[in-house]
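FAQ: What does the model actually see?

It sees only this:
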Amino acid sequence: MSTENYHHVNLTIEQGELHRSLTCTAPEDAPCRRRPPEPEERESWTAEEATVPGAACWAVEWVEAVGIRDAIIATVDDQVLASVPVEISFEEGVGIAPVIASDEVAR
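And it is asked to produce this:
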């Protein structure tokens, strides 16, 4: 089984508001991007041989259908999802900025 994870929860600040999203970076032939070829078969499937690659990620579709806030709250209770190092500054108000290591790429 692969340990690579293509699904990430993103926290972004857009126009002063905190936004959450789920993204998928999986290749087109990943299990989450495979579907049966016929629409009537798409409600439930199990055999990878009976699927075709290249669909939108089902994990992202499911989370978007219920809303990421509800998806996170429904499965996580009293748990830190991520911890990001930050720098605190004060210039005309308190500011918090993530610390990005020199070998990391800002998104």
